[in-house]
Amino acid sequence: MAESDRRKFLKRATAVSSALLLGGCYDLSQTTWWPKVLGSAEGVTKAAQRLFAGRNALAPEYSKADISPLFKANGATGIFAASYNAMAANGFRDWRIAVGGLVEKPLSLSLDDLRHMPQRTQITRHDCVEGWSCIGEWKGVPLKYVLALARPKAEARYVVFHCADTDADVNGNPNGNTALHYYESLDMIEAMHPQTLLAHEMNGAPLTVPHGAPVRVRAERQLGYKMAKYVQSLELVENFDHINGGKGGYWEDLGYTWWGGI
């Protein structure tokens, strides 16, 4: 199946499942079964992508001529915390990314450590759930190399990305901070995908603060909200029960679906 046909099929599958659900949504708030139905529809969408795209199929890549002249920043565009801004002022020389949870060898990696690992550069399209898209060039270390160093345990099913930004940063309201840090997650198949990066450069330059400096996730088969910015630790887990709302991500805890595949 051609890439364009595959994406059209997945969009139709998602639209059909959504229509079936929304057709009876007037009384959903009075039921106890609807979360199970939503979870089932999400599973169908995920299964469809894995079936027709395959575990290792690549998202489309583009040429430098296709790069968007202005790449919109998603989510928070800055962090209020003084500790973060102090690190930004010195080029993030002291930034560390911890890798822990269900691993045989916990890690603490600096930005230089990441830069000295094998690198991948890719020009891809960012698709936001809000309806906009941009094309940009990303450079970083494929996440699979970091995971190989940490040696995941057999029971590890997901990689959780814990980030420096909070709900106050997302909403642009320093006085409304409830200390809920942004987090996201991918399953091990997406985490090991060759286009899933811990990216530290965009369009040939170090990441800027609005775009998630010093390190952000690029998972090119996923919607933009899955690509966490300001990453400060990775936690390998079997489930999400102990993390915030237990849904696998900041926006998922607020109602987004966990599966953001496109």
Strand order of the largest sheet: 2-1-10-5-6
Order of helices and strands: HHHEEHEEHEHEHEEEEH
Rg calc: 18 Å
- Give average pLDDT, whole number: 85
Q: What would the principal axes of the Cα set say about the shape?
A: globular
Give helix % range.
25-40%
Individual helix count: 8
Structural class: alpha+beta
Task: Describe the model.
With 262 residues, this protein is an alpha+beta fold. A hairpin with a 5-residue loop joins β1 and β2 (107-110). It is globular, with a radius of gyration of 18 Å. α1 (3-22) runs antiparallel to α2. It contains eight helices and ten strands. 28% of the residues lie in helices and 24% in strands. The two termini are 15 Å apart. It has a five-stranded mixed sheet.
Summarize the model shown.
The protein is an alpha+beta fold and 262 residues long.
Write the layout of secondary structure elements.
Layout: H1 3-22, H2 34-53, H3 82-89, E1 96-101, E2 107-110, H4 111-115, E3 120-127, E4 133-142, H5 143-150, E5 158-166, H6 167-171, E6 181-187, H7 188-191, E7 196-202, E8 205-206, E9 216-219, E10 231-237, H8 250-253
Parallel strand pairs: 1-10
Antiparallel strand pairs: 1-2, 3-4, 4-7, 5-6, 5-10, 7-8, 7-9
Helix pairs in contact: 1-2
